[in-house]
Protein 1
Amino acid sequence: MADQIVTVFDRCFAAPGGLNTRLAGGFDEPYYRPAGGQSGFHQVEFTRDYPASALHEAAHWCVAGAERRQQPDYGYWYAPDGRSAEQQAEFERVEVKPQALEWIFSVACGMRFRVSADNLDAGLGPSDRFKRNIWLQVLRYCEQGANERASRFARALAVHFGRGDPFRIDCYHLEDLG
């Protein structure tokens, strides 16, 4: 399924006039590489062949503004697994929008979405507040719209996978986040 997600992303964004960006799997860690070198393409890299990683990294790319997309890994901080409670709270604050988009992309593909706290070593799973904030952000995207890149990708995924409109509020329930 990851290869199909790559195909849809590249069709949306790698073509001329499509922001010169490709999605690529097969990496040990996700990373964003702005254009440079021989390829001339920006590259959104996801872990191995994991569809959820592909959708999550595409969501980060959709959230990042034009200036951030010129910086390696968007210029964001990242504390690895084993974060303190304070670092985890900051992680949850900055991850609401990407994870909300990932949920929308997952619905567009017919995949189950799982909230990621990305902090297994510390034993800190996603907080109830984090789950609620993701759900509320999804509802905002459904009611007010997401940015053009996110909307374009979500709708292209839905067409490719034969799914309905991924911006229907009735597709999203807080209790589905466990």
Protein 2
Amino acid sequence: MDRYDIAIIGTGAAGLSAGINAKIRNKNLIIFGNKELSSKLSKAPKINNYLGFYDLTGNELKTNFQNHIEAMGISITEEKVNNIYAMGDYFALMVNEKMYEAKSIILATGVEYTKPIPGEERLLGKGVGYCATCDAPLYKGKIVSIVGYNKEAEEEANYVSELAAKVYYIPMYKGEYDIKEGIEILNKKPLEIVGDKKVEKIIFDQGELITDGVFVLKDSISPSQLVPGLDVSESHIVVNRLMQTNIDGCFAAGDCVGKPYQYIKAAGEGQVAALSAVAYLDSKK
């Protein structure tokens, strides 16, 4: 398996800025995110506080970002990182049924993530998981509940149904559901995931459900859930001026480290994070 020098999670201003600065310094990098880049940026009617780019619409600035990374030969990997584990001299990034390795990571995830269900964080790894295709074999012949926040969750539910004795699908969105026969759809709101040493049941606004495991499948998760042991305060990653977190080799930049939520601030922090990651890698030689 190839081990990247730097893995960057996020394709907003911070992540892209980190990417181009890592590329300039000849580091082997991978960026996880959306090839469409920031959805928030495209909605901005005018941007006048980004030095050198006066009176641009969000879409125009987004196009400049896209042109810049393409000119530098930087590609975006459209895969969702479910968990990142510090393994000593490298990080393991879990992406569905496979894993990537990187010597350092830069978190540029923004602040858009769904508030956890009560009990979700406490029971993480004790019956609660974020990757159904990764952990489904653990639930062979058991009862599994999947809380899905997007259409992609339907595919994972279908996969799990091939192994589990019973699958309940709990959609957190409206629409048609492409679900295999035998999967029971519950249009109820989960209020709490309950259990002592492991998951036992889900409490709904109407009734409850006995279950052996719960997969919560959403677009993005909080930084503390993404990287176990990461120091977070008031939903923001704690960093110093070098964008270093409390985990050696892990850096963060952009909205996920705090206000103000501004593109130019995020881009500057992305550069600092990349330079700090490069210095960290050089110190390990």
Protein 3
Amino acid sequence: MNIIDLLKPQPGLRVFVSAGAAGIGAAIAEAFVQAEAKVYICDVNSAAIDSVRSRLPGLHAGIADVSDRTQVDAVIDDARQKLGGLDVLINNAGIAGPTGAVEDLDPVQWESTVATNLHSQFYFLRKAVPVLKGTSECASIIAMSSVAGRLGYPFRTPYASTKWAIVGLVKSLAAELGPSNIRVNAILPGVVEGERMNRVIAARADALGISFDAMREEYLKKISLRRMVTVDDIAAMTLFLASPAGSNITGQAISVDGNVEYL
């Protein structure tokens, strides 16, 4: 096999993507479909699922609130049946959570952020790892953390806390699952261009009492390359980690962020 072939995921790879109907998740699902993988996504938004399936014929999908363990169990069972097993789990689901001073945060919003961003990672892992062990010879788990999983993030403590926790989870699982030939890595996206980031910028601008444009410029000043990354940048890294070229990469927290210097 030449080096170019090593960079391509194996055709027929069986891939599960949580929150795969929009944003980063949809870009990842589309990238794997283009790489001739068999892909199953779940999402809480049925209309978004219908939209992405209309673009990607053959995509398998199920509806799930990832903070609900029974719904997670159901879509993993469905994916195993429809895909005939599992090679790659992409734990992508997450929400931005509230913005504000820690003493002003609503405990319900804190708990919702932890449930969606962190508990869901465990729910998918506990159900999918036995499938990976039993059906794959090239198993890989990719967890979506954030640049906020390596830097402090004032006024975004619920989000940052969950993203740091994901890095710890990944590094621990890499050691735990390595003897079973399962690789585990985290991707840490930076400031990702799109509507979700626009909402984050608007909320933080409001919290700090400045304009949206001024807040956006502040974000760009913190990035060495002075530009945001795209969902396709993140999708490309997932393809690499799932390819033979990534076969000896595990336990890593890989930033795709243009080098965000601080938050």
